[in-house]
Protein: NADH:flavin oxidoreductase/NADH oxidase N-terminal domain-containing protein
Organism: Armillaria luteobubalina
Amino acid sequence: GSIENMTCFPREVVCAVVEAVGPERVGCRIGPGSNCFDMKMANAIPTFTYLMFQLKTRQPKLAFLRVVEPRVIGMENRSERGIGAHEGNEFIRNLWAPKALISIGGY
């Protein structure tokens, strides 16, 4: 499906939770590098770039963004095998700045 359609559900969920409790009490967790159960996205960077732009624009007061680093999958640490240059989350950091970002996994 289109990027807009693939990001519709998370955008609607965030919007509903923000309406219920207020944006200062809502965070969002994403894992753009995840390939859990072999479900890795072929177009993760454009998809998550669009999602981040939409969240930052439509919900500018979100408390934080929590992003899973691509060097972990579940309990497995991929840092020993390495990750590709295109698999990093630097694009998320750049898009989300200067807002609060929590980076988890592989530390």
Summary: The first helix runs from residue 3 to 6.
